[in-house]
Amino acid sequence: MNVTSQSDQAVEILQGVIERGELKPGTMVSERTLMELVGLGRTPVREAIQRLALNRMLRIHPNRGIEVPPISVEDQLSGLEVRRATELLAVTLACERATSADIKDIQALADALDGDYTLERYTETIRLTHTLIIRSAGNPFLQDLMSPLQARSRRFWLMHLQDSVEEVNIGKHLHQRILRAICARDAKEAGTASLDLNDYLVKFSMSVISQRVSKRDSQSW
């Protein structure tokens, strides 16, 4: 395996660990710790750290270590503003450019979303959904822009999840609508479904603020 593919593997492993909260926000880790975590050598792990730092999934402190930075509601809402526009473009392009092989994979994933999902399986399926849409859009610049935004958004969602069954069911339905619209090459419906997903994520983010206010008020009594 070459260094580039090892670096990609290290990014995938570390990003998953951060998204799932296995490395908590505010945690300081060393390069050696991350090497042991992913089971790869210094060069690919160092490259992965640099890439994740650019995506704001890690923060490098010279002579101190590597921090898993917190993600605030404000950060999430700012990211969702950008996601709203880029994902609308992505699903529109996917409707126009998806190959027959893309459509086959998207249809299979849409059908699979009819089933029951654990939170872990759902998270992996949504990551695959994002990958398929970006691939079908056929624009590498969209991939560079969207992938880190989606990763940070998944991380925030997992951090603040209260009722996983209800939220997974909502998310399944919204993503399934997008996938089925792309299969039908219905750009209007795909765009509407994409905006509905963004609206849901904004509402979810705002609910985090409400929960904090309620908790603060209850503690003041």
UniProtKB/TrEMBL annotation:
PROSITE patterns: HTH_GNTR. It comes from the Bacteria. The keyword Amino-acid biosynthesis does not apply. The lineage of its organism: Bacteria, Pseudomonadati, Pseudomonadota, Alphaproteobacteria, Hyphomicrobiales. It comes from Rhizobium oryzihabitans. One of its GO terms (molecular function) is DNA binding. Keywords: DNA-binding, Plasmid, Transcription, Transcription regulation. SMART domains: FCD, HTH_GNTR. This is GntR family transcriptional regulator. Residues 4-71 form the HTH gntR-type domain. Pfam families: FCD, GntR. Transmembrane segments: none annotated.
